[in-house]
Design a protein that fits this description.
43% of the residues lie in helices and 0% in strands. The chain is mainly alpha-helical and 92 residues long.
């Protein structure tokens, strides 16, 4: 098991990475967000984002409205057999 690091240690690592010019702060945050999403999908026994059907990838990358709606344009999905989608939304 890897020992966790403190916030100060993480901040120093991020600042060093950004100062090196190899990565931006935005890239680090995007990678962190992708890691959280991948972990959440794995805990639900789902594949990584790039392994999900296109409509689910699109839905996961959209902003959720304040009233809980998810705005998506009409998408036609050709389906051979049965398509079952389930989504559970927990208010924060």
């Amino acid at each position: 098991m890897i020992d966790p690091i403190t916030t100060a240690q993480m901040r120093a690592l991020e600042q060093g990475a950004i100062a090196s010019g190899d990565v931006t702060g935005l890239e680090l945050m995007e990678r962190a967000g992708q890691g959280v999403l991948d972990a959440a999908l794995a805990s639900a026994n789902l594949p990584p984002l790039d392994g999900l059907p296109a409509i689910l990838r699109e839905a996961l990358q959209r902003e959720v409205e304040a009233d809980g709606r998810l705005e998506m344009a009409f998408t036609e999905i050709p389906v051979l057999g049965e398509l079952v989608l389930s989504m559970k939304v927990t208010p924060s």
